[in-house]
Amino acid sequence: MLNVLHVIKRAGLGSTERYVVSLAEKLKDDKCNFHLVYSEKGTLVSKMKELGAKTSKINMRNPFDFRAAWLLKKYCKENSIDIVHTHFRREAFISVLAKIMGGRFKLV
Questions:
Q1: For the chain, what percent of residues have pLDDT higher than 70?
Q2: What is the pTM (predicted TM-score) of this model?
């Protein structure tokens, strides 16, 4: 089973967030365990928890936030994350930094 981590700054319930929920609803028991890392709490967090996803808060101040990248790399290692799925530029840069720091995950 794949461990998939979605990384999003503001976990509201806009179109991207609805997309994340849709993926989790369709794939949660068949092929994937879902995780969510967010910076600003919103309704997406409770929705993902209802679907059985593990959630965690990591402050992401800017695209070159090395502390956030290090914490993300650590989260991925501790939870055996296979795939990190980002949705916006800030999260993508932080995830790339985490990968450069030694993260062993595929990045989408």
A1: 100
A2: 0.92
